[in-house]
Design a protein that fits this description.
By secondary structure, the protein is mainly beta. Helices cover about 10% and strands about 40% of the residues. The strands form 3 sheets. Strands 1, 5, 6, 7, 9 and 12 form a 6-stranded antiparallel beta sheet that branches. A 4-stranded antiparallel beta sheet has the order 8-4-10-11, with no helix packed on it. The radius of gyration is 25 Å and the shape is globular.
Amino acid sequence: MQKANVRFFNWFVIVLMVLFFVSCTSPGASGSALSSAEAPIQLSDLDVTTGQTIYVPAYSEMYIARDRTLDLAVTLTVHNTDFDHPIILTSVRYYDTQGQLLREYLAEPRQLAPLAATDFFVDANEQSGGLGTNFIVEWVAEQPVFEPIVEAIMLNTSNNQGISLTSPGRVINQIAPQDE
């Protein structure tokens, strides 16, 4: 009887060790391919059927008195509202009050999975934009999708006070879905 208990205990320890070592391996070590959200995207490989260019007003500062402004942090957020299909962000650009490009946020297209969201941040200390900054967001999809929600959120919480506002994006160019 005692030999059976020892054998059972040895097997139990071996199973625990195997489970421990298997759980410690990294997800990439299992040999699975990269998820489609992580895979590089080449626009030339896509069969684009729909997309938009969206203008999003943003305010990196605002007047609080005739000659005083308050610096605001700006977060641009893009929400894919489609339940089943990804969208591909092709460009996110930030412009100053004079319309000069300050920053291109994407070095290459980025896929946004169904119901996923992503954001782009401008620190309140980056005051190169002025009062009337804006973003231009371009996206495409390979099939008809629900339009994403794109908005800017501006915020300042200094001196025990808080101010926040949102600014929705507006479509300024549309790639219509192709009729089948």
